[in-house]
């Protein structure tokens, strides 16, 4: 029994000893397997190299991390956050609101606008400088065909009809003629008028439709502004001003109808006076004017026997009765054509004569044209 216990103790101590010596034994065993001599110095050097590489790798990692950190800082500094934008925008908006309120407070008084002073925009710009000042003007428009005035939608002649233009700072002949159609033609300008650019994009003054007549169905359409017809092919985009007289006429014979007009369009006389009329005409090119002789006179659409303009283009009317409405006087001059038919030589011309009693207003001339 004692021997068995002794051997157990010896075996236990051997086991402890072997456990203590296990690592060196394994190392020696590895060297013995590949027949490589073992050197403790070489092993120490390798471990030192590995340690240095590990340290170097750690340093490099630290550098890269530092570099990444700096880049991230730069990016964050260069790109403002959304919050910073919101703050600035809110600040600017509040400043603008304060500015607008300050301007509004300066112009809330009605006196600022009703005393004739010029109103300013919120940015301090004068309206007149921007060309936005609206102007109202009145012009007269006459439209005729074959030497006779055409009637409006109510059956009244289109002779010196007043057209008021509003809502713009300036106006053209096109504006006036379009407004005249809207006022007096059945269906308005959409039905009876057309003026547009040609296929090349130019406005050459051609009226494609006047008072419902297509240009292709008539010999020609001409017009004059203040009895000036030498530039009849000028575009209708030319400007008109307050008081202008616009005359549009459809020719019966192409480039043969001459513009005609009385030197007065409105006249007032007393009952015992005799009005003397003066009729003039242009040449076929509209570049010069002469006296219009041989023209017959109509009163309210009725031809007057023996009333014909003389060589000086003048004629004296008989005595006219007093009445509330003016007398509508027109002229007609016919010539024989090569085929023996009669055709007009001039465009339609008119004058309105008002007759008052001798105790009333004495005669005077209005809208005199020389």
Could you describe the 3D structure shown?
- The chain is of the alpha+beta class and 370 residues long.
- It contains 8 helices and 21 strands.
- A hairpin with a 2-residue loop joins strand 1 and strand 2 (148-149).
- The longest helix has 39 residues, at 40-78.
- Residues 27-129 and 362-366 have low confidence and may be disordered.
Could you give the distance between the termini?
166 Å
Average of the residue pLDDT scores: 76
Q: What is the CATH T-level topology of the domain at 130-254?
A: Ferric Hydroxamate Uptake Protein, Chain A, domain 1
The helix/strand order is HHHHHHEEEEHHEEEEEEEEEEEEEEEEE
Low-confidence stretches: 27-129, 362-366
Rg over CA atoms, rounded to whole Å, is 53 Å
Globally, the shape reads rod-shaped
Short description:
The protein is of the alpha+beta class and 370 residues long.
List keywords for this structure.
alpha+beta, single chain, 370 residues, five-stranded mixed sheet, Ferric Hydroxamate Uptake Protein, Chain A, domain 1, 27% strand
Describe the SSE topology.
Blueprint: H1 2-20, H2 22-34, H3 40-78, H4 82-106, H5 111-114, H6 127-130, E1 135-145, E2 148-149, E3 161-168, E4 171-172, H7 173-184, H8 188-192, E5 209-210, E6 213-214, E7 221-225, E8 239-240, E9 245-250, E10 260-262, E11 264-270, E12 276-282, E13 289-291, E14 296-299, E15 302-308, E16 314-316, E17 327-332, E18 334-336, E19 342-344, E20 349-356, E21 364-368
Parallel strand pairs: 1-9, 11-20
Antiparallel strand pairs: 1-2, 1-3, 4-8, 5-6, 7-9, 10-12, 11-21, 12-13, 12-16, 14-15, 14-17, 17-20, 18-19
